[in-house]
Design brief:
By secondary structure, the protein is of the alpha/beta class. The strands form four sheets. Strands 3, 7, 8, 9, 10, 19 and 20 form a seven-stranded mixed beta sheet that branches. Helix 6 crosses helix 7. The chain is globular and about 75 Å long.
Length: 375
Amino acid sequence: MVFMPINGRSLRSTITSEGTLQLRLIEEPVAEPTGSQVLVSVEATPVNPSDLGVLIGPADASTLSPADGGGLDGQLPEQALPVMRDRLDKPLPVGNEGAGTVIAAGPDAQELVGRHVSLVGGAMWSDYRLVEAAAVIPLPEGATPADGAALFINPMTALSMVETMRAENHTALVHTAAASNLGQMLVKICKDDGIGLVNIVRNAEQVQTLTDLGAEQVVDSSRPDFLERLQEAVTATGATLAFDAVGGGTLAGDILSAMERSLPPAEFWTPYGSATHKQVYIYGSLDFGPTTIQRNFGMRWGVGGYLLTDALGRLGGEAVQRMRDRVVSELKTTFASSYAETIGLADILDPTRLTAAGKRGTGAKLLIDPASDRP
């Protein structure tokens, strides 16, 4: 097959030394695949919170306005610039994961031409991605790119939480912002695997959503009796490990307190609390405020950050392969994602859509299909 030269669009986000945010769609030639490379026509890529972190950083999406010549310009708070030091004046590609069709391949990967595949590796908010064949996962027969668009971040994060629980000798979990796509996956995993799970949500509608999925312990943080209900749920499950997507506020400390109080009384009292280690991992920032810890749960506890890539490194290759196999086999059940709207690549530069996406509300997830508005 003769490769025909083509151009493709790709989204770039730049934070300048002057404190401005510049979002631009650039067009550039697409290289011909060689060796074991494949060229994927991107047809589905989700808008994840991690993508928004690269796209707009600490900027307020409501400050974005059309720029001369296309794209959007915005402004960062002056105090945010030192934190952004290492990315200043560097146009960054956006989009962690996605799926599409292999339209060309090097001589060592010809068997993939025409296949729908899922892939990760960044720069997915583009018309085309050139990657090594080892970086793609062929989708099962009958699966569409939309089915495979989000096969890495949410599914692998949910599975890594369960694998981390086992590796660190815990027996049950607490999860916050639990009505999210990821949270719903975790409900299904824990139900299938017989794992106790406490789900913390933010309103009664989300309680119903998770109850309908079969969740047994769902606690609404907006209720005045939230702390009492949290205590009951943690006691019922015996959870001593939590994954917190909120980050700011008192929630992490509230969970640790509930864990400490749920443990049976010690035979001999000490000023150091129970002998059981209690752990909260913060993996999101729905609340950008300070994390406030009221230390009333002894001395055997920990609060730390949680990154999927680091977790996969700790868990090791055998566990990671087991997780990947499960994601593919349960593509349309446990790990199915839902989207509020499918938009074109240029549509993500609509300030109204960006502002809505920045609120990160349950049920508001967007899917980008670059092929739908490709020139």
